[in-house]
């Protein structure tokens, strides 16, 4: 019997981690579009291009999927700040400005994800852990800059916490719809305020 072209095709089987990533990507699309309450596992798997049975190889419930999607989102948020501060190719004062500007932009650009997933059980604890990690990194960088004589700042820890939570609160108000602030203005202001409280030292 002749072998057809279809017989010769070898179907690629995605690794488990890639299939899990596809489900998380699809979940964000569906949760943002339909809302967490109305979203279904069937719609998530359809969007991901896989069977419903495949879903249960990676997650047990929709809530578990939503929690994993939120954790991945917040990991990306914290990772953005970490990457900027770790790049020693630019002056520390510029990196601190870039961190606050970039984190502010990230939340504003992904506001629909925050609105869709923040009601997930454990979401606040995950967010708080990411926030504390970033505050520690910003404070540590500022303290190192002070010790190296390249920054002029009093009380790096208190300054970092006040600055971070100030803009975190402002961005949350915008995302929640309780305040109307132009996004680009808020981002620029975050950078300007960061430079004001973490200025380069006169000798830098």
TrEMBL record:
<keyword id="KW-0238">DNA-binding</keyword>
<keyword id="KW-0804">Transcription</keyword>
<keyword id="KW-0805">Transcription regulation</keyword>
<dbReference type="InterPro" id="IPR001647">
    <property type="entry name" value="HTH_TetR"/>
</dbReference>
<feature type="DNA-binding region" description="H-T-H motif">
    <location>
        <begin position="40"/>
        <end position="59"/>
    </location>
</feature>
<dbReference type="Pfam" id="PF00440">
    <property type="entry name" value="TetR_N"/>
</dbReference>
<feature type="domain" description="HTH tetR-type">
    <location>
        <begin position="17"/>
        <end position="77"/>
    </location>
</feature>
<dbReference type="InterPro" id="IPR009057">
    <property type="entry name" value="Homeodomain-like_sf"/>
</dbReference>
<protein>
    <submittedName>
        <fullName>AcrR family transcriptional regulator</fullName>
    </submittedName>
</protein>
<dbReference type="InterPro" id="IPR036271">
    <property type="entry name" value="Tet_transcr_reg_TetR-rel_C_sf"/>
</dbReference>
<dbReference type="GO" id="GO:0003700">
    <property type="term" value="F:DNA-binding transcription factor activity"/>
</dbReference>
<dbReference type="GO" id="GO:0000976">
    <property type="term" value="F:transcription cis-regulatory region binding"/>
</dbReference>
<dbReference type="InterPro" id="IPR050109">
    <property type="entry name" value="HTH-type_TetR-like_transc_reg"/>
</dbReference>
């Amino acid at each position: 019997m002749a072998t057809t072209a279809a017989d010769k095709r070898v179907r690629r089987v995605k690794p488990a981690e890639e299939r899990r990533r596809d489900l998380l990507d699809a979940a964000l699309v569906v949760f943002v579009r339909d809302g967490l309450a109305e979203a279904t596992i069937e719609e998530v798997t359809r969007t991901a291009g896989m069977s419903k049975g495949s879903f249960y190889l990676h997650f047990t419930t929709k809530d578990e999927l939503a929690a994993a999607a939120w954790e991945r989102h917040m990991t990306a948020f914290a990772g953005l700040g970490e990457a900027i501060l770790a790049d020693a190719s630019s002056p520390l004062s510029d990196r601190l400005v870039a961190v606050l500007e970039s984190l502010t932009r990230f939340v504003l650009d992904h506001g629909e994800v925050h609105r869709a997933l923040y009601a997930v059980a454990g979401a606040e604890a995950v967010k708080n852990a990411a926030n504390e990690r970033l505050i520690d990194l910003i404070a540590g960088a500022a303290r190192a800059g002070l010790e190296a004589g390249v920054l002029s700042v009093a009380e790096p820890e208190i300054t970092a916490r006040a600055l971070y939570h100030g803009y975190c609160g402002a961005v949350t108000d915008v995302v929640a719809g309780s305040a109307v602030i132009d996004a680009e203005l808020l981002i620029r202001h975050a950078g300007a305020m960061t430079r004001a409280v973490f200025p380069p030292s006169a000798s830098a």
